[in-house]
Request: fold
Amino acid sequence: MRRVGGFARIAAFLTLIPLVLAACGGTSTGAGTTPTAAPKAAAVTVGIVTDIGGLNDGGFNQFSHAGYEKARAQFGFPDVVIQSQTISDTEYTKNINAAAQQADMVIGVGFLMEHGIYTVAKQYPNKKFALIDGCAVNPADTSGACVNLPNVAPLFFKEQQAGCLVGAIAGQMEVDGKSKAPKLLGHNTISAVGGLAIPPVVRYIAGYKYCAQQVDPSVKVVVGYSNNFTDPTPCKAIANKQIADNNADILFQVAGACGIGVLDAATAKNVYSIGVDVDQSKDSTGAARPSVITSAVKRIDVAAYDIVQMAEQQGSATTGPYASYVASPYTFDLARDGVGFATPSSDVPADAVAKATDFESMIKAGTLTPPETIP
Reply:
């Protein structure tokens, strides 16, 4: 299977329904006690393996887990969560294997688990697997081509579409200038800070740069990579350098928990920032991040929930909704409400919001196609 192009609109945190386990008991009648029925067991038990950054990264891992928890609340399977600590094929494979020993289905979170998913799915052909932002890839194949295994569901998004919409906002704000966006530094420069130059990160930045320059061909776009997804310090350093050396005044973070340093740097320097994956206008305590004007989002929670729901509808790996999806996977894009941008802050001029909405309509109509690689 060839790699699907596209690896989110979340305006607020997903509200999880608590799992209530019915206690054994009954209602009293004149004839005695009538026992209540025990809750029905899930057809498929499910585990999830996070990438580094953990469950409280405020983004990718956290919201993948939110979709998993929504499904767990509905279907009642045991909680099997394994958090990866290092970027390593060895650790990813070990963790996926450990989850597969405890569950009928395993969801991997992140492109970097492609080799691990392939290895473990081949080992357990009767179990189901899914990978957010990736597919099964044979470690021996240096081309990185997807392998169409019948028990692996690839969950891809068109991040370039989400990146495009926030890029359109940034581009229009640069056109508007300080009269409408007073925190601009006046040098017509925006930037992006990525974690690693992996496909989903690159797609976000590609759409951001392309559409900003569609709005304002003269806008300069500075791109840097931290080679880190967990520690805010290197991302903050890159952001500070982009502000000081390049006069970047709208900074797009695409680096997971590391990218929180970008948002913080923008706040400290009184310029604008853009979050990623989920609405990052507030931190984990609910406090506002003053620099964040919007976020490029993808509905990773929806993808995680949907694939579990498909698996729960049938018990076989060869028939039913899950198997149908694996045979013909779709991409979570604007048309499926799989990507988008978070509600803009009051710092965003109305014409910039309108520009993003116009670009959204053009993408859906097929008259605008943001690239997958950085132009």
User: Anything to note?
Assistant: The mean pLDDT is 89. Residues 159-176 form the longest helix (18 residues).
